[in-house]
Every structure is written in structure tokens, then in C-alpha cells.
Design a protein that fits this description.
Blueprint (H helix, E strand, L loop, with lengths): L2 H11 L1 H30 L8 H8 L1 H34 L5 H8 L7 H12 L4 H9 L11 H11 L2 H12 L3 H9 L4 H12 L1 H16 L3 H6 L7 H9 L5 H28 L20 H28 L4 H6 L10 H8 L1 H34 L3 H10 L7 H11 L17 H10 L1 H13 L3 H9 L4 H28 L6 H4 L7 H8 L6 H35 L1
Helix pairs in contact: 2-15, 2-21, 3-15, 4-5, 4-8, 4-9, 4-12, 6-16, 9-12, 12-15, 14-15, 15-21, 18-19, 18-28, 19-22, 19-23, 19-25, 19-27, 21-22, 23-25, 24-25, 25-28, 27-28
């Protein structure tokens, strides 16, 4: 009997494993497979018979075809612009010896707490049709086109500066592993800094650059918030078009087809990335790298040029964040006039938000949704990861693969599938209808976070020594007691970090919320988007500024709890 067969039989004999397997099978069938099958049925068999009418309607729709072309154009453009900006900011914060390098890093890291619908709305409030900068320019140029910051240019600009987070996270970590000895050897052989960078450093980073390029391409392909806020009528991509078509019963099949095309493109790109990574030949500079030290500039003009470019880019990153913080303390009429003085400063907006339940409700709703989804995902997958690591085999592998389905599907496709699947009674839910209820958005948030949570929990369980569990069992501890008193304390920091990161990524969500939110429980992303529509109410805009600052404070505090405290502990050690 093979080890895999023995592990599978052990799984079937374990009461905990059987309960976990049964719950996972029900959950996967109900919330992962059924919505996708419903989406396919509504697209290709709307009346129970095979039909390609949705394909014909898509081909005949000029708007839909133009949106597909715009999505591809945006994705290709971002693959270039984000890499140029992302690689540059990584180099000036990690590779070159820059002045005030930590301040530079903090400015570029604002995307960790300022992104998604919040960032798009912030740019709109500053540069949009009724934004502060536009209002200020209009006082000097009366004939100014107020829609100057919209369309393809605005979307590319905003998303270029919003999606360099992957470079800050992954490319910086990859650069830190470059061997310092190889750099010094190349310098002793007469190589210049730029030659070393081009011939040694960048080829070493090629796998990571390729990975973040694919992620950037996928982000551009499925972009929703920036095109819907800043794209205007001239530049709409697939995701806003899916949202538009899904609001009508007569065009919902076209929306489903567009979502399927988006999902197939995502699956194809991820498959290509995996294949290239397996077949590619990359070289490493050293197996054990000495820590990399910042490299000095050889010429004064080179140092001046890089410093000017880096700090100019720093201003671009910091200006929207600083403006939003300032605007939260400014009278809305001064913002609309494009002129701010000392007398325009006020705490009225903060008082309104902190003392009014109605004003604070969207923020509290988002906090509740994010916290519940994060805790449910971590608690549920805690037992799943335990079973998978303890009982490897074909059944565990099947469970793991099924729970990774959300990783290869765009959020819009998941949300649209849930809407179509649960707008009628389903036997798997005891005949309940979820569409139009507050529970469906919570379900979507849990689904979205399944793959990320499972992978990290599985890695943390794998790091627990088997001898520790064996010792607990010898001392008479049961399976659940061992989990609670031995295993959980060992992986508690990882569990807390996963929960915090999930919370941060969901609190300002718009992509899923716009399809699934309940009108009586409006989340923050929807409230912020509504405040950007037309010449919004000035009081609503001011409240949005306060909400955005609160959101940045909460996200910053969560990131500090996850990374800052551990970094300080490492420095003390």
C-alpha cells in the first residue's frame, strides 16, 4: 500500500477530516461550481437549449467590442508603464545610495494604504471635472476644458502609479537577494554601475519581473474602478461594460459572455506564466547571497538626474494623499472655488462623521464585512489546511485544487455568477434565495480570499515540527486539544497576519460590492464612488475625504501591526 493511499485512508478514518471534507464539498458545490455553471447556462443555454445568441449579440455590439479592445490596450500599456515606474522606484529605494531613502520609500509605499476606488476618487477630486486643481486652473484659463483629466490618458496615469505595489513587495525582495560579492567582483573587473545593473542585476530579477508583468497585465485587463471613475464616455473597458449590461435582464447574457471571456484570458495568461517559469532558464548569481549594499553614483550629473527624477515622482505619489488629508479639514466651498486660505480650515466635517451614525455607516459596514469575511476565511481554512497537511493524497489534492478556483477567476465573474445562481431558490441552500440579501456580499468576500488564505495557512502548518505534535499525543492530548494548545500558538503570528491582510484588502472593495451590496447596508466603496458622480453634493464630498483619511489610518495601523512590530523585533535581535 502506497503512502498516498494510506494517507487517504487515514483521512477517511478521522472524524475531524470527514467533517471538514463534507463541509468543503458542500461549500465548493454551492458557491464555487454552481455559480459558474449558472453563468455558462445563462450564456449558452438561456432557455434550456444550446444557443449562440449571446455571441451574435456581442459581435454586433460596437460598444462591447470597443470595450474589449480598450481593455487589451490598457493592459499592454500598463505592462510597459508600470514596469518602467516600478523598476525605477525599486532601484532608487534599494539599489542606489539616495539621500533620505527612507522618506522616498514611504512616499512610494502610499499605494499600500491608498488604492482602488479610494485612489481613483482622490484623483477625480483633485484633477477631475470639478476637482480642486481644475477649479484653480479655471480661474486662470476661463476656456479650460474641464474634462482634460479623463479618458485613456487619465486611466493609464492613475493605474500606473496605483499598481506599483507588487514591485515594492516582490521585486524589492528579489533585489535584496542579489549577491553583493558578485557586484564587487564585477566592479573590480572595471564594470560601471549601469553595466552591472544591466548585465547582472536585471537578468537575475527577470523571473520576478515577468511575474509582476503578468499580474499587471491581468490588473489592466480587468480594471473597473479607474475606467468607471475617470474613463468618461470615450474610454470604457470590459469590466464597466459588464456592470452596465448586467443591470438589464435583456443584456445579462452578454455581460456573462464578457465575464467568461475575461476569465478565460486570466486562465490563459496564468497558464502561460507557469509554463514559461517551468521551461525558462534563469541563472542565479549565488546560492547564498551576501546582503546587498546601496551603490554610490560615479558621477555628479548622474546622481543629480536620478535624484531629481526620484523626488519628482515622489511628489506625484504623495500629492494626492496629502491633498485628501488637507481637504478633510477644509471648507468644501473653498475646494470648489479652487482657493484655500487659513480661514477655510475647519473640523466640522470630522465632527459630522464622528457624531453622525448615518455619515459613519458606510465605513462601519465595510469594517463589519471585512472583519467577518477575514475571520470566517481564516477559521474555516485553518481546519482545511490542517487536514491537507496531515493527510496528503488524491482527496486532499482535489480539495486544494477546488479551493483555488477563485484565484483564476476575475472578481467580476465571481460576483456575476453569484447573482445569477442565487436569484432563485437553490436546493443546496435549503431553498433559500441569496440575491438581494446582505449575506451574498459576505459570501463573495470569503470566496475571494480562499486561495490566498489557504496557501499561507498550509505553509505555516508545514513549518510546525511533527515531533511536537507526537509529544502532545503521547502525553494524552486529543486531536482538537493538540490543535488548540500546541499547534495554534506556534502559527498564531501567521494567522493574525493573514487575517489583517485580508481585512485590509477588503475594506475598500468596489468590484464585488457594486454587484452584490444591499441598499440598506451600503459599503464604503459604493459611497465613495457615488460622491464622484457629476457635481456631487459638497457636504458628501467632504465626508468622503474624512472617510478616506479614516480608511488610510486603519489600513496603516493594520500594516504596522503586521510588519512594523516584527521589523522592530528583528532589529532588536
Amino acid at each position: 500500500m502506497t503512502r498516498t493511499t494510506a494517507s487517504t485512508r487515514g483521512l477517511l478514518r478521522s472524524p475531524l477530516a470527514l467533517v471538514v471534507a463534507a463541509v468543503v464539498i458542500w461549500f465548493a458545490a454551492t458557491f464555487l461550481l454552481l455559480p459558474n455553471l449558472s453563468l455558462l447556462g445563462a450564456t449558452f443555454a438561456p432557455e434550456g437549449q444550446l444557443s449562440l445568441s449571446s455571441v451574435e449579440r456581442l459581435i454586433s455590439s460596437e460598444r462591447a467590442l470597443r470595450s474589449l479592445g480598450n481593455s487589451v490596450l490598457l493592459a499592454c500599456t500598463l505592462a510597459i508603464t508600470v514596469n518602467v515606474v516600478g523598476i525605477f522606484i525599486v532601484l532608487v529605494t534599494q539599489w542606489f545610495r539616495m539621500r533620505a531613502r527612507r522618506v522616498l520609500w514611504l512616499g512610494f509605499a502610499t499605494t499600500f494604504i491608498y488604492g482602488g476606488i479610494v485612489l481613483a476618487a482622490g484623483y477625480n477630486f483633485i484633477y477631475g471635472r470639478f476637482g480642486f486643481v481644475t477649479n484653480w486652473l479655471a480661474t486662470w484659463v476661463p476656456d479650460l476644458d474641464r474634462n482634460w483629466f479623463s479618458g485613456f490618458f487619465a486611466v493609464v496615469l492613475v493605474m500606473t502609479f496605483a499598481t506599483t505595489t507588487n514591485h515594492m513587495l516582490f521585486l524589492s525582495a528579489a533585489l535584496a537577494k542579489v549577491d553583493r560579492h558578485a557586484i564587487e567582483a564585477a566592479r573590480l573587473m572595471g564594470a560601471r554601475t549601469w553595466t552591472i545593473l544591466w548585465r547582472i542585476v536585471l537578468p537575475t530579477l527577470r523571473p520576478m519581473i515577468f511575474a509582476v508583468t503578468v499580474l499587471t497585465f491581468l490588473t489592466g485587463l480587468g480594471a473597473l474602478t479607474a475606467p468607471i471613475v475617470l474613463g468618461g464616455d470615450d474610454f470604457q473597458t470590459v469590466s464597466p461594460m459588464i456592470l452596465t449590461f448586467s443591470r438589464s435582464q435583456t443584456s445579462r447574457d452578454v455581460a456573462a459572455l464578457l465575464a467568461i471571456i475575461l476569465g478565460l484570458a486570466t486562465i490563459l495568461l496564468l497558464a502561460v506564466m507557469n509554463r514559461v517559469e517551468r521551461s525558462g532558464t534563469y541563472f542565479a548569481v549565488a546560492k547564498v547571497a551576501a546582503p546587498l549594499e546601496p551603490q554610490p553614483f560615479r558621477t555628479r550629473w548622474g546622481s543629480t538626474l536620478v535624484h531629481v527624477a526620484a523626488w519628482s515622482l515622489w511628489i506625484v505619489y504623495v500629492f494626492p494623499v496629502a491633498s485628501v488629508v488637507l481637504f478633510s479639514f477644509v471648507d468644501a466651498r473653498a475646494i470648489a472655488a479652487g482657493s484655500i486660505g487659513v480661514g477655510d480650515l475647519t473640523f466640522e466635517h470630522w465632527t459630522t462623521v464622528l457624531t453622525s451614525a448615518d455619515a459613519l455607516q458606510p465605513f462601519l459596514v465595510s469594517v463589519a464585512y471585512s472583519a467577518l469575511a477575514s475571520v470566517i476565511a481564516v477559521v474555516g481554512l485553518f481546519f482545511v489546511a490542517r487536514v491537507i497537511t496531515r493527510h496528503p493524497g488524491w482527496l486532499s489534492s482535489a480539495i486544494e485544487y477546488v479551493l483555488h478556483i477563485p484565484w483564476i477567476l476575475p472578481t467580476i465573474l465571481i460576483a456575476l455568477g453569484l447573482v445569477m445562481a442565487f436569484d432563485r431558490p437553490q436546493a443546496l441552500l435549503g431553498g433559500q434565495v441569496l440575491t438581494g440579501t446582505v449575506a451574498l456580499l459576505l459570501v463573495a468576500y470569503v470566496i475571494i480570499k480562499l486561495p490566498f488564505t489557504l496557501r499561507l495557512l498550509k505553509a505555516s502548518f508545514a513549518s510546525v515540527p511533527r515531533d511536537v505534535e507526537d509529544a502532545a499525543r503521547i502525553l494524552g492530548a486529543g486531536q482538537l486539544q493538540t490543535l488548540a494548545r500546541v499547534v495554534l500558538p506556534l502559527i498564531a503570528p501567521t494567522v493574525a497576519a493573514i487575517t489583517a491582510l485580508n481585512f485590509n484588502s477588503l475594506i475598500d472593495d468596489y468590484d464585488a460590492a457594486v454587484f452584490l451590496y444591499h441598499p440598506l447596508a451600503e459599503p464604503l466603496g459604493i459611497a465613495i464612488k457615488r460622491s464622484t458622480e457629476g457635481e456631487a453634493n459638497l457636504d458628501a464630498m467632504s465626508i468622503t475625504f474624512v472617510m478616506t483619511v479614516l480608511l488610510m489610518v486603519v489600513q496603516g495601523a493594520v500594516l504596522w501591526l503586521v510588519y512594523g512590530r516584527s521589523a522592530r523585533a528583528d532589529r532588536r535581535r
